[in-house]
Write a structure and sequence with these properties.
It is built from 15 helices and 24 strands. It is α/β, with parallel strands linked by helices. The strands form eight sheets. Strands 1, 2, 3, 4, 5, 14 and 15 form a seven-stranded mixed sheet that branches. Strands 6-7-13 form a three-stranded antiparallel sheet, covered by helices on one side. Strands 10-11-12 form a three-stranded antiparallel sheet, with no helix packed on it.
């Protein structure tokens, strides 16, 4: 189908309007945020399925306080501080690089001797990192002072769940202990994974630097973070990919201490009763495995590279225009087939980039823009066809100069009316002729057309809606008056 030259301009206006509505109305209000996150997570998992698990995962061992551990230890939860001291002693005997405990240890226990025992074990190990938390009031809460002074470091263990679907996609790599930002002169600290990374690399915690939107691990490692101090978590492994052992087996001495030699040991809860299981792009994941993935990301340097927003919207606009003009040029079935092929190849390319280069963009919006452009142009073509058909229909049944019906339409209408007329109904037919019209037309050619128009208008005005008036010849009208 060929279109007038002004059609491409109209299509551009239509597609730009869709672009503006989506980017400045739908996106800011978050109407499609949840489906967008779900689709982007789907592509993330497809890309992750093509990746091999990093070799650095062998440096991490997760000690799980699981359901079996709670049964085998024979103590109600929470365990006594003495029990935790025993667990750390057994792990420390294997010579790990670092030990992290994902437990709060906030208040004093009834047996202060057990607190002192745990503090002594932590100090003797020399490589223990403890967890701090931001409470509901926004305050940074650390373990008991006796444990903080004995530990090598304390880091933030809170995650950054998405406000829309509560999935954990980001870590608070840097956090401000009083709210706000470093530019306001407020103090800040680092996440657990950052502290463990520094410990493993032999970097003094005082040597870590936070420079606006990056964390510097001297001498040559830099980690980019957002202005809020967050960092997207690249989930490089599932729970089952990590070397995990049950805490109960350690207490039972059924494991060789050498299992922990030169390893980073992360001790955390996986039992359902602990309620430390969170939704993530990989599914329900215990908090200790979220920290394990955050640490693995730092160890490998496999950070997510998100496409800047300005480049995203330019790509969306280009795809929208390309798909729109494709739909305008070809029939709906053919353009739908080509669109399917383009989206399929684009999806494969995105999965390849995500898997190979940790590339990330809003693939949902790209697909949505393409489909919206296709549907909008097809709707425009359909509506234009209807409008054009109505125009042609009007031209076929009406004399545009006199605004009355053509003789062909008059005949068809009268025939249908007579065929379907009920008994007792009468109709009046007549032929109206302007006398001496040939002479008038010869003498006053310009006025004759106005004369015919005036006769037609007066007839319609006088007889009203019950009249069917049509042009019969140059100076004649056929008329039917309905009863």
């Amino acid at each position: 189908m060929r279109y007038p030259r002004e059609e491409p301009v109209k299509i551009i206006y239509l597609l730009v309007l869709i672009f503006i509505v989506y980017n400045f109305l739908i996106q800011p209000w978050g109407f499609l945020k949840v489906p967008a996150l779900s689709v982007n997570d789907l592509f993330f998992n497809l890309g992750r399925a093509r990746k091999a698990v990093p070799s650095q995962i062998s440096d991490i061992v997760v000690v799980a306080v699981d359901n079996s551990s709670l049964k085998e230890v024979g103590q109600k939860w929470p365990w006594s501080r003495q029990k935790f001291a025993e667990l750390i002693s057994k792990i420390s005997a294997g010579g790990p690089k670092a030990i992290y405990l994902d437990f709060s240890f906030l208040g004093k226990s009834q047996d202060e001797a057990s607190d002192r025992q745990l503090a002594e074990v932590i100090k003797k190990a020399g490589n223990v990192v403890l967890a701090g938390y931001i409470n509901e009031d926004g305050e940074y809460v650390q373990p008991l002072d006796i444990f903080v002074s004995s530990a090598r470091a304390v880091g933030l263990a809170n995650y950054k769940p998405d406000a829309k679907d509560s999935k954990v996609r980001n870590m608070r790599a840097v956090f401000f202990t009083k709210g706000g930002s470093a530019s306001q002169g407020l103090t800040f600290d680092y996440a657990v994974a950052v502290k463990i990374m520094a410990l493993v690399k032999g970097i003094p915690l005082s040597g870590l630097r936070y420079e606006g939107e990056r964390i510097v691990f001297p001498p040559d490692l830099e980690v980019a973070v957002t202005k809020a101090g967050t960092l997207p978590i690249n989930y490089l492994a599932r729970d089952a990919d990590f070397k995990s052992v049950s805490a109960g087996k350690i207490f039972a001495s059924s494991l060789e201490p050498s299992l922990f030699q030169d390893k980073i040991v992360l001790i955390g809860a996986t039992a359902n009763i602990m309620h430390d299981i969170h939704p993530t792009p990989l599914g329900k994941t215990p908090g200790i495995y979220i920290i394990a993935n955050s640490l693995l990301m730092l160890l490998t340097g496999s950070f997510i590279h998100e496409l800047p927003y300005i480049y995203e919207i330019l790509i969306f606009l280009l795809f929208s225009l390309a798909i729109g003009f494709l739909s305008l040029r070809f029939k709906a079935a053919y353009s739908a087939l080509v669109l399917s092929g383009i989206l399929f190849l684009s999806s494969l390319a995105y999965i390849f980039l995500e898997a190979g280069y940790n590339f990330r963009m809003d693939i949902f919006s790209l697909i949505l823009f393409s489909l919206a452009s296709y549907l909008a142009v097809e709707a425009y073509k359909y509506i234009s066809l209807i409008v054009e058909s109505e125009k042609l229909k009007g031209m076929a049944i009406r004399d545009s100069a006199l605004d009355i019906y053509t003789q062909r339409y008059f005949q068809l209408t009268v025939q249908a009316a007579l065929k379907n007329s009920s008994a007792g109904r009468s109709n009046f037919f007549c032929l109206i002729r302007i006398g001496e019209f040939a002479r008038l037309n010869e003498k006053y050619p310009q006025a004759s057309a106005n004369l015919i128009k005036a006769v037609a208008d007066m007839t319609k005005e006088y007889l009203g809606k019950k009249i069917l008036l049509a042009r019969y010849g140059e100076s004649e009208f056929s008329m039917c008056l309905w009863n």
